[in-house]
Structure of Thiamine diphosphokinase:
Amino acid sequence: MKVCIALNGIVNDYNKTKEIIEKENYDYIIGADGGCNHLNAMGIVPNYIIGDLDSINKSLIEYYESKNVTFKKFPTHKDQTDSEICVHLAKTLNATKIDFIGALGGRIDHALANIGFMYHVFEMGIEPRILTSEEEIFIIHNDTKIIKGKKGDTISILALKKDVLGVTLKKLEYPLNNARVSYLSPLGISNVMLEDECEITVEDGYLLVIRNLNI
């Protein structure tokens, strides 16, 4: 079950982002308050809208009500962020994968919180990604992943939570073999894919992977 959650960060290219959303063929799309402004700009109607509705364009509320979108309104002063509330809804929908758009840009605290929140989503047994028109961000934990892209795409890796052990990189300009990547070390920044796919192995730990598209 694949769910897309639209947040109120920056979306640089609506056309490319819409192409990504349509290609992924999500089972559900959830708009987090102001994230619905992005969805509307792309002509996308969500299944659910969540938040205190202080950021969404007011004219869109009536429009989306006419489209039979389900609203779940929460007070402005609450213990959870809109991202957390959306993920809990996605979990009740039996999501196995969640992609976030509009998760970056704008306020740095929100961007960092959304990136860090990916770990907690992963721990729920749900595979998270952050997608933009320029990059994708995901986590590898005790696994080997084949990453598909294009020759020349930039791959960066960061140890998430603690040092990551047994990191092996193949088909990248700067390979690693069973290496230790220290927590938030810049060691893995700006590697380059030598082919249209590469391989990353993690023996122990959580590795944050950022693939910047070759555009």
